[in-house]
Amino acid sequence: MSEWRRSGGRPGRLRARAIWFALKYGLLPWWMYESECHYQAEGVGGYLPHLRVNLAQARRWAMFAETAADVAFEREANDDLPLIGDVRWRR
Q1: Could you give the angle at which helices 11-27 and 47-62 cross, rounded to 10 degrees?
Q2: 61 within domain boundaries
Q3: What is the pLDDT of residues 33-58, one digit of tens each?
Q4: Which residues are CB-contacts of 17 (< 8 A; sequence separation ≥ 6)?
Q5: Which domain holds residue 54?
């Protein structure tokens, strides 16, 4: 049984948002949505390692294999973000 079933809440919305944000922020280069690269500061490395982490996270959510830590992260970090309108397109 996945963690959201144990913790309550709106599992379909949380799962969809988790997958969306993992794909969105995994595929987009950092300069499109933030002024400083957060994943280089966290020691994840460059774009490809960050992409791998996000794709693995999207897969985990899609396969209903998320953990309590994944659920807590999504509720804390991504719960109040807009789904589409937060990307700053550079010209």
Answers
A1: 160
A2: yes
A3: 777 777 776 777 788 888 888 999 99
A4: 74, 78, 79, 83
A5: 26-80
